[in-house]
Structure formats: structure tokens, C-alpha cells
Write a structure and sequence with these properties.
The complex is a heterodimer of chains A (about 375) and B (about 450). Chain A is an alpha+beta fold and about 375 residues long. Chain A has 10 helices and 14 strands. Chain A folds into 2 domains: about 5-195, no CATH class; about 205-355, no CATH class. In chain A, a hairpin with a 7-residue loop joins strand 3 and strand 4 (about 160-165). In chain A, helix 1 (about 5-35) crosses helix 5 and helix 9 (about 260-275) runs antiparallel to helix 10. Chain B starts with 5 loop residues before the first strand and ends in a 10-residue tail after the last helix. Classes of the chains: A alpha+beta (about 375), B alpha+beta (about 450). At the A-B interface, loops of A face helix 1 of B. Chain A: InterPro entries: DUF3500 (IPR021889). Chain A: Pfam families: DUF3500.
Amino acid sequence: MSVTNLKSIAIIAAFSLLFSCNKEEEDIDTITEVVTSDCDASTGVDKIVCLANNYLGTLSTTQQTTSVNSLNLTNAKKWSNLPENGSTRLGLKFSALSSTQLLAAKALLAEVMGNTTDQGYNQFIQTTLSDDNLSAAAGGPYGSGNYVIGFLGTPSTTGKWMLQVGGHHYAANVTFDAGEVVSITPSHQGVEPITFTTSGTTYTPMATERAVMADMLASFTKDELAAAKISTVFSDCLLVPGSTSNTFPATKLGVKVSALSSTAQAKVLAAMDPWLDDLNESTAANYKARYTADLADTYVTYSGNSSGLSGTSSSFFTANADYVRIDGPGIWIEFICQTGVVYPSLIHYHSVYRDHDQDYIGL
Amino acid sequence: MSYSFLTINCFKQLIVTMIGVLVVTQGYAHQSPTTMAVMDISPRLLALELQLPLSELSLAMGQNLEESPETLLQTKKEELETYVLKHVHAYVDPKQPWRVSITDMHLDQEKDAISGRPIRELNVSLVLSPKQGENTRRFTLDYDLIMHRVGNHVAFVSIRNDWEKGRLQNKPSEIGIIRVDTEDNRIYPLEIHLEKGDGVQGFMGMVSYGMQHIKEGTDHLLFILTLLLPACLLVRNEKWAGYGGIKYSLTKLLKIITAFTLGHSLTLLIGTLGIQDFPVQWIEVLIAVSIFISAIHAVKPLFYNKELWIATGFGLIHGLAFSQTLYHFNLDSYELFLSVLGFNLGIEFMQLMVIVITVPAFIMLSQTTVFGYVRNFLAGLIMVVALGWIMERISEQPNSVTQLVDLIYPYSHYLLLGLYLISILSLIISLNRQPSKNEASV
């Protein structure tokens, strides 16, 4: 092969890289304009149902059948923190969707998840990019094409239905009933590695989650930290899905928020935000109010974090098995650092957000 | 095999148990590595094999065991043993705990089901001995290895072999899960209630195990067939000559088989009793060599009229290999006696089946004029296979010959069909030709 040939191949490759990168940006930023014009007239859950039907309308009959499943407990429990292997989740894989279908799906997700910076829809897309990054490094079951979207029950403004979207490091389960959002859990988020660069852009999708949890623990006094710490260690979140999924602990561990300083109490509340901001603004506001009301009876516990120092945020969540849990009457958030799977020399993050009263609501 | 006779109750409640459900534990995929606790149950002994992921063990022991796994067992063997023994208990009466001893400890590497990443494991073999008057059908397993410290750690408990129920499949089926009960943060002991079995079931289990062993033992089968290949022939001038007649053939076959049986029964008994600790690898090599020699014998008589001694001698070697399969059941003397008897009967029965199926073809072939070619061709093939096995068993690496054999073996009924087709064809060809006296000798 001649040098000229090599050069032209390199130029083409560079252009296609540029092009693909632009296309990705376009996906994230402008899809709402592209396919949602029909639904712009409505707001709230009406708009979500409109967008859901819009998406379903782009599907073939066979695809629709695969997409909409019965709303029952067995199906509702099909969320996972494992890479997709074909039977983990219900619905359609992104890789099985045409570009039009995928845009319609993403328009729906953007509306449900909202547009808070680095949270919601934006974090979801960053998470799928992180999986593409893993796929490039390790192949296997990783990659954005292995993320799955589906419905339990038929989307409507009057009935009860659930939107399930998930892949290796993301699981969102949002339940609607009679035009209201009635549950936004279980939810799972993770990222590996914690920082990655794709097409020249560096992403850190869970940096905020880590920061708020570290700020919270750092705001505790030495005594408060001692009261919050447990000797049990964790190698993963406790309430992960799967064959051994289990019940919420009856006894809450660690320190009760009402026993903390007012500064620390505010930090506990702030630590919940990145999980609640993964839903659109109005939904997030409702849940923030719900958990604020519960705040005094909420507990914080942590383990690992042997380097953790009161007053120093950066001393928390640095090593494998550094773990924190917020456990309230309703809220349950776990956040943990784990040894990487594809990059074993680096840590990666896992988190689970659940709700004592609203997981699989009514099922 | 369904496991519906098994009932497991937990001390209080809430430890997830699976009743009457057969789950092969290897099929699981979990986020953080789990412990596999595999039980081999015989009436007076419970053998427990633990596969402990090093990453989780490190967290539990508060030290990084993954740093230099190569030297782990040299530097920390005692510490690991003490740790394991502290967290594994069994009893019927909590005041009278069973004796627990470690019989082996080594490092293993498993692959994560999804990512394919290597998971380093500490593999620990334990033997738990019930008190006088107690047995292994009903006891409490008080176990909190790793999970006493690691809150999300899970141990899957399964039964691989259960002698008294004749369950000798070597496939683990899950019977329970031990983990921290998340509701109250306690680890409940697993109460194990197994339906009563008996010696008859154990014996019958061993008979079918023996049959299965021959059915799946490509090398043993091939050895027998190779030995029988020239058995119907007479020898003239140190060469195989014509067919010896039906009575001659059957007597010879019976003698060879009986001699082989006597040989392997003897070493099976000795080996199973553990009197001698034989090097498994070299036994396997010797078996392959025995096949090779028998194949040469099929071409040119090496030990004509001494077949009985040879069959006995090779029987001794094959019996040593059989004994290795019984040894890990950890049986007591009475059960061991029943097992050796049952296993042997199973082997015999299966061998007889093979002979009944194949010998008519050999007798047919022996009378044809082309048997010399067929026999030499088959013997050549067998030599290649035997050489493949010899190389594989010395190098501990599969080669293309052994891989091909493994590939073909499931279709061996077609080979049998082929043998009969060749026999019938040869017979037809022979009948159409004018037989000459010496044609059968090659």
C-alpha cells in the first residue's frame, strides 16, 4: 500500500471520527427538537405518555409486543447491575432500534429524566458512553447498544404503568399511576472507570455523587463520624438486585440525622440530590420534599474509608470497599467504591437508590 | 435427577432456601464474587469443599491476600487454616460440635461468568465428623466465613454427592444460601435435613456409577475392544492366522474379561482403601500405554496365550484409576465395601454389554479374508489415539488427536454401526472370493 493511500485513509478516518463525534453531541443536545414537536403542547405526565406513545408508534408490531409486558412483581424485579446477557431485562435493546426509533426513545427518556447538568438524561447518556468505552477496551457484553428500554403496562394518563430502562451501569424504574409519578425506584448507577475520555471529551458521570457523599461525611465531627461508622465491610451495595435480593434492614445503622449538627444535617439532605435530580424537575421536587420531611429520622452509616478525616472531603471514597448508606423511613441510598472489573488497578463506583415504601409499588 | 426428597429448614426463617429445586451452581452470575460450599455426604463423614474468592477473603481478614498469591500458602497457611476453622462448625447438639479438619488447601482460578475476568480463589477441603450416634442426614451447619465481616457476602451451599441416596453425579445442586439476614443483621445457621437413605440406595448408586464410568471412559472401552480385536484368531508362525472357531473364541473372550476384572478389582480395593497413594497422572499414562501395546498385539501377536496375564496386569493398572474416583467420596469401611462391590458390578455389567454388542462383529470379521487389513487399519488408528493420550497425559495439554476423539466420541454408536457394515461387507467380499488357506494371515 502506498504512502498516499495511507494518508487518504488517515484523513477519511479523522473526518469520520469528527463526524461521529458531532453526531453524538447532536444526540445529546437536540433530540427534543427533532421528534417531539407533537408532544410540545402537553406537560407533565401527559407529555411523558405522549412521548411514550410517540416512541411505540415508531416500532413494528413485533417490537411493540416485546416492548410492552405485564406489570407484575416478577417483571418489575427484572432490573440488574450486570451487563445485559439477553435475559436480564425486558424490552428492546438500543442496538435493535433504528435511528428514528432510538431518537424517539431518547426523547422520552430526556423528558422523564430531566436536564440537570451531569444528572438525569445527561448522566444516563454519559453512562452509556462509559459502557462504549468499556466495550472498546474489553469487548464482551458492554456497550450502549446493550441498554434496554421497555414498559410494564401500557403507557396512559389514566392507568398504571412502569418505564424500565437499564444496562450494565444504569437502571431506572419509574412508575406512573393515574397521571402521577408514584415511584422512581429501584434505581442503580455505576461507572467504570470513574473518569474516561471519548472523542476528546472527558466525562466523570458520578463525580457529583461522590462529592456530595464525601462532603457529607467530611461535615461530620470526629465523634459523629465514630457514631456513624460500622465495622461490617462491603464489597458491593447490599440491596443489589438478583437471585439473592433481600429485605430492607429492620434496624437502621449508624448515626441518626437529628443527632447531627445543623450543618451536617443540611449536607445529608444535599447528598440525596444527585439521585433525585435524575428525574425531571417537578418529580425531583416532590421527592426532595418527601425525604426532607423524613430527615430527622434518617440515618447515615459508613464503613471502610480508613483514610477518612473530619473536615477533609478528599479523604473519603478513595479505595475499594469505601462505603456509605443513607437509610431513612423512605429513602435508601448506598454508594461504594469497588475494585475495577476491566481496570482492576482503579476503583469504580456503584450505587443503589431504593425506597422502603415505593419499590415495586402496589405489586 | 430431582432433589425433591430434600428439605431444608432454617433456624428461624428468612434465609433463602431452595426446596426441591435443582440448580447447578456454576450457572450463577453475581456482581461480587460469592463462596461456593460444596458437600459430599457419606453416612459417617461430611466432606466440604469451599471456594473462597480471595478479594472477599481479603476484606474479611482485613489484609490484602491478592498481593502475592504465589507465596500466600507458604506465608499464611496456618493463619488461613485457623481462620477457616474458626468460622466453620457443624453439630446436632451445639454443646457437642463435630470435629472439623482441613484436608487440603490450594489456590484456584475461576472465570467471572460475564466479564471473563479471572477470580482468584482459595480452595479449602474440610472433613466434618459427626459424634457417636449422630449422622450426616440431620445436622446444623453453623457457618459465617467471610460474611461475619463482609455484609453483602453470600455463600451458596450445594450437595454434589450423597452416597446414601445413590446420588453420585458429581454435579452440585444448590440447597441453600448463607448470608447476613439483612432484616436483622444476623447470620442464621443452616439446618440441613436430608431424607434418610440406606445402603441399598448407596449400592445401586455405585452400580450405575460404575456403568457410567465405563460408558464415559473412552480409554477403558478402547482398551477392552483392542484386547478383544484379535481374540478369535489362532497364531501360526508368530503371526495371526485363521479363525479359531466359535467355542475357542467365546472361551478366550471370557477368560480375558475375567482376568481383566480380577486385576482391576484387586487394585480398586487397595486404592480405595488408600493403602497406597498412587500418582494419578502416571496411572493415566500407563493406561494409554496399555492401549498402545494391545494395539501392537492386534497387529502381531506379542503375548499370545499369555493374554490372561497381560489382561490381569493391565487390569491392575486400570483398577488404580477406578479407585481414584471412589477415593474422594470419603467412605467408611462398610460403605466402602458396598461401594467397591457395586462399582465393580457396574463396570462388569457395562463391559459385558460392550462385548455382547461388539463381539458378533469381531467373530464375523475374524472369518473373513480381509480381516487382516481391517484389523491392521483399526489397530493403526488405535495406536494414533493411544499416542495422543500418552502425549496429553504427560504434557497435561490436549492435542489435536485427543480433541478429535472427544469430538467424535458422542457419536460412537455410528462407529458401531460402521463396524457392523464393514463386517457384513467383508463377509460378502470373502464369500465371493476363493478363500486360500493363508490369506487371513498378514
